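Q: Here's a chain of 459 amino acids. Please give me its 3D structure as tokens.
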Amino acid sequence: MFESLSAKLSGTFDRLRGRGALTEADVTEALREVRLALLDADVALPVVRDFTAKVRERALGTEVLDSVSPGQQVVKIVHDVMIEQLGGAGAVPLNLQAAAPIPFLMVGLQGSGKTTTAGKLALRFRERLRRRVLLASLDTQRPAAQLQLAQLAVQAGVSSLPIVAGQTPVEIARRAMDTGRREGFDIVILDTAGRLSINEALMEEVRAIRAETSPVETLLVVDAMTGQDAVNTAKAFNDALGVTGIVLTRMDGDMRGGAALSMRSVTGAPIKLTGSGEKIDALEDFHPERVAGRILGMGDIVGLVEKASETIDEAEAEKLARKMAKGAFDLEDYASQLKQITKMGSLSSILGMLPGIGKMKQQIEDANLDKTMIRRQVAIIGSMTPKERRAPDIIKASRKKRIASGSGTSVQEVNKLLKTYDDMATMMKRMNKLGQKGLMRHGLGALMPKGMGRPGRPF
């Protein structure tokens, strides 16, 4: 996400960092480029004006122009203002301070991912907070909407309200809250109907449901891919209902970023969650400082560590660490690591969390680093015999042909995999040989293959 915006802003800031001193004209020119980049990313015009005005006011202060590294100072100011624009430092938590059953009202237009988000939210409450959750579909407009939510409830391992034909949305909402009270549920998630566009009938229906249930959270689900339309939708719902939080879906798509940057300023409501992909566990807290870091090419190391801790098998990781410490690393270990990586999501989303990776975007795409490539590598290793996986040196021409045939790949792909494995194994052997003190003395360059880095000189 934010790839185009990130690339344009990075280019502007690289030019600023390269200057020893900044004049007011330099700041003005840089802000003009920032303004154009934000407008191109579909950020609302009033938000762009407010953003650039705040940056200009702070950037023209003496602490910047007289700074040792004024370019870096301006980048920091842009970063700070962007965090403010996105809602301030730290994620805004969902409100659970109410007597059970706590009602959550999901609203939004048809096709925004509202029903899928209701299922994801139910799983989140069950797994992270150990709460008993009841899902209830109030959508009598869309065919099979209630059945869809019932199926999502099964996937999430929670209960769904039995379907009773002929009831109005308000009657279903009342029955859901009664069921929640009688059967001891902690949370009731009410999934309302959407429309293709905002109309008074939709708003009136949601107002009636809200009056009946008094929800603790009214969460507006909007599709981040729709850009400025998402902002307009959010403003209309907020004006009519007073939403307490926003969930941005399809954050893994080819979005320009305008919706996220505009939402808080236009509505006053915080972005609380983001969804990416159709998997039922693909729902995350929205951290403004991390998103700002990714937009400005600073990465999101904290997010990457959190994602890894949630998906990587700790026992497996410790086992691998022990083998690496002994300098032993075979193809079975390599396959295990590839499988762990795929659990964390797409490689592009993982790499996007690393600082400075935006500048390498094209090279990464050219290298075709995706899940398909990983699956092919796992398939190649799976076509080897246990002996071949433990001792790759025995894999010669005839064995390569057999492995390629068995995995549906080519001999060239088998060779590439073996070369990648060999580079990794060599690096680990060097690490083991150098030890901690040697690594500190010689730097990372000592681990690299010849031609990459210079031994004795740290990177």
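Q: Can you summarize the key feature?
A: The two ends are 29 Å apart (CA to CA).
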